[in-house]
Give the backbone structure.
Amino acid sequence: MEFSIKSGSPEKQRSACVVVGVFEPRKLSFPAELIDKAAGGYLADVIRRGDMEGKAGTTLLLHSVPGTLSDRVLLVGLGKEKDFREKEFTAAVRTAVRTLNDTGAFDATLFLTELPVKKRDVTWRVRQAACTAIDATYRFDQFKSKKEEVRRPLRKLTLAVERRNELTQAETALNQGTAIAEGIALARTLGNLPPNVCHPTYLAEQARALADEFKLDCDILERADMEKLGMNALLAVARGAHQPPKLIVLHYRGGPAAGKPVVLVGKGVTFDTGGISLKPAAEMDEMKFDMCGAASVLGTLKAVARMALPINLTVIVPATENMPGGNATRPGDIVTSLSGQTIEILNTDAEGRLILCDALTYAERFEPTTVIDVATLTGACVVALGQVASGLFSSKDSLARDLLDAGEEALDRAWHMPLWDDYQELLKSPFADMGNIGGRYGGAITAACFLSRFTKQYDWAHLDIAGTAWKSGADKGATGRPVPLLVHWLMQQAGSGE
Ligand code: BES
Ligand code: MN
Ligand code: ZN
């Protein structure tokens, strides 16, 4: 879809469709009032007849409205004006775009971007509208032999702003929104791909393709490289797999040449059977999503490169399958991690922390200011926070604060969880420096505590996205979270955020 920004009155737009909002009950938004005036009370009449109450999620398509220059006017219900906030705003944009795809209109001008949203300016509204519009049309149908066809898809969407002096910031916001949407789409697609396609080698190829597209440095470590380095925790997970593991490293250099990078580490378990500690059969297919951390850091990198943010960003993806087999790791095996610390692997299904700990140690060599790892790490995090918020852990409160704020702004929220020493005790092992599990209680926290032992050299945060990275059920699929949160945080780091 093509986008542009414009300022001007709705009744004077020459387009296939003009989109304006109606609040509940039966109250025209300001742009709708302008059309109504030009049309001699036409909209007010329609509303009086009860065809559009303004309920959120409803729409009404009108043709040849008098006094306007457009073929159509689409009314979109916004819900009660006093409840109209960020979520209602994006929901209205989503509804508008989906509806437009069902009409004959190839282009449309969206006046929803002029609606006031508490605490949010025009930059936020345009960025969010563009991102939502693209995300609303995302499809993953490459394995359907018969594709559901959109008869006359929306090709061009113009976002309206009230004043001419808002045009410049709106253009910037539009670029940000489309870049973020591109990052989200990449993360969703990598997540949705079946595990026989999206294996570690495939992820490495995708990373190489990103590197080619954006002129990034790309380094792929093979099993032999990892052996030489001593990444025995990562290798322990890969033992049962026939697919070879990969450690993917990408460098984006948009900041000062000597500037230290931010490092993002993403869990890339392309299928998690549990290994010898085998998972039950029900819903095991969803463990193809166990590489959504990897997908999200690659998506974030793509958005950052697309925006050409003035920062240095390194992405590390430890990628492997977690499979059972005659050569697989046994519960009770002890390995020496890259850091030198020894780990008794008590449960082979707690594999995410094993591949992450070696990647986190490897990150030290890039002398990062900050490292954030992103992982579908624990079922316990889903129990704690459901599918609403990602679990956020950090060794530095101000970093946690900034990430929480970024999540609020991006509508991709996280919740701060504790990392207190009291929990560290649960990882004690009689035979090694630590075990890889911490017992029945506080599973998301003990997993984060495990990782914290490998992150002493830099400021660190951990996002457990087990509940937020994908949706289950009838329309299951990857969400692309937490790409919005991460990109907003990086925009703040680059000084171009709000
Ligand atoms: N990938 C899973 C976490 C997961 C489970 C994400 C369910 C989303 C839904 C992870 O590797 C895992 O298996 N974790 C175990 C840890 C346990 C063995 C300590 C878990 O959460 O059960
Ligand atoms: Mn597991
Ligand atoms: Zn896993």
Notes: The longest strand covers residues 312-322. The pocket of manganese (II) ion (ligand 2) is lined by residues 272, 274, 322, 349, 351 (CB under 6 Å). The two ends are 26 Å apart (CA to CA).
